[in-house]
Amino acid sequence: MDVTISPSRVRGRARAPPSKSYTHRAILASGYADSAIVHDALWSADTRATARAVTLFGGDVSRSADGTLEISGFDGRPDVPADVIDCDNSGTTMRLVTAAAALADGTSVLTGDESLRSRPQGPLLEAISDLGGEAESTRGNGQAPLVVTGPVEGGTVSIPGDVSSQYITALLMAGAVTDEGIEIDLETELKSAPYVDITIEVLEAFGVEARHTDDGFAVPGGQQYRPADGEYHVPGDFSSISYLLAAGAIAGDGTVTIEGAQPSAQGDTAIVDVVDRMGADVDWDRDAGTINVSAAPLSGIEVSVADTPDLLPTIATLGAVADGDTRIVDAEHVRYKETDRVSAMAEELGSMGVETTEEHDSLTIHGGESTLEGATVDGRADHRIVMALALAGLVADGETTIEGAEHVDVSFPGFFDVLYDLGATVDRND
């Protein structure tokens, strides 16, 4: 699907979807449990992949008309899947489910789409092997398809922290139901650390203890997943909130009010501070879970995305509108997402007339030297690239057509409907 965005002003109220990160963890945690009810879950292409994996492990996931998920789990020990686990485009699913597969008494096979089959899994495979399981890439390159044989009983592993925090999340979630537990020693500084904090927060809600150690993390074995009252509520998604917040900051005609913005462990809450530092008028009522944002002249700043890689596309678009340079640093790990988001944003914004400087671990957007012009751009089969380019289309001179816009279904299925309801001119071409 192609979507064309015309220059538009936005105002009104919008609600962000539930958190994708929390939903993934809640679905799998419910799978590790005997049963659970998950309220306010994001039902997207990515989270459906995790639900399918839980089903293949012997659980069952059913969704009611109001979006509530009723999950019968596999109670700590997954069955050997009767079919290949297709993780589609979801890196989170593949990492978390790979560790779960290592608990099964037999062999599991995991794969995904072309993009997912290019993403690094090697450190997690090595960790599973160190724990006594067997885990390998069929192509011998550390990438899917993966073949995993268990069961592992726990132990101590050493793993890099600067490739993906999802390796740590996967091992913590699986380690709780091993006999011995798992202790994780980090070989390098942990990137995207707030995502592990999200994991620990979800584990606590399911009655599971995990903790920071001097050298990394640890989770005792022999635990059971039991959420309080058998239920869990998913908070709003700040990665998705970033697009609504940026839309108000660059194209607001009056105030844009964003609902569902309750505080949580999400590192992407940093976007509120980023937009404020750039000069927009922002007010976050944490008790009410609402953010009010109004447009104002923006100025370039320097932002580290070491802990917030998903914010890079949004910040890049803000920088294209701002006066002066916006420098996004500590960005090397952002190259290993659904696409290389550093290069993707440099190239696609470049096709819209934006001057950028790309380095290995940084991206500088020269807003003062740029004039945003409408163009046909490639969404790179990446939901975050699509949404960031749609924001640019709101303030570009002329129409902007985004190819492959259907990929917003990964995390924000109603994104273009929300933009339209805020006043944007949105034309779909299926």
TrEMBL record:
GO terms for biological process: amino acid biosynthetic process; aromatic amino acid family biosynthetic process; chorismate biosynthetic process. Keywords: Amino-acid biosynthesis, Aromatic amino acid biosynthesis, Cytoplasm, Transferase. The keyword Lipid metabolism does not apply. 3-phosphoshikimate binds at residues 20-21, 25, 164-166, 192, 310, 337. Phosphoenolpyruvate binds at residues 20, 91, 119, 166, 341, 384. The active site is at residue 310. One of its GO terms (molecular function) is 3-phosphoshikimate 1-carboxyvinyltransferase activity. SUPFAM superfamilies: EPT/RTPC-like. Residues 7-419 form the Enolpyruvate transferase domain. GO terms for cellular component: cytoplasm. InterPro entries: Enolpyruvate_Tfrase_dom, Enolpyruvate_Tfrase_sf, EPSP_synthase, EPSP_synthase_CS, RNA3'P_cycl/enolpyr_Trfase_a/b. Its EC number is 2.5.1.19. Its main location: cytoplasm. It catalyses: 3-phosphoshikimate + phosphoenolpyruvate = 5-O-(1-carboxyvinyl)-3-phosphoshikimate + phosphate. Pathway: Metabolic intermediate biosynthesis; chorismate biosynthesis; chorismate from D-erythrose 4-phosphate and phosphoenolpyruvate: step 6/7. PROSITE patterns: EPSP_SYNTHASE_2 (PS00885). Belongs to the EPSP synthase family. Catalyzes the transfer of the enolpyruvyl moiety of phosphoenolpyruvate (PEP) to the 5-hydroxyl of shikimate-3-phosphate (S3P) to produce enolpyruvyl shikimate-3-phosphate and inorganic phosphate. Monomer. This is 3-phosphoshikimate 1-carboxyvinyltransferase. The lineage of its organism: Archaea, Methanobacteriati, Methanobacteriota, Stenosarchaea group, Halobacteria.
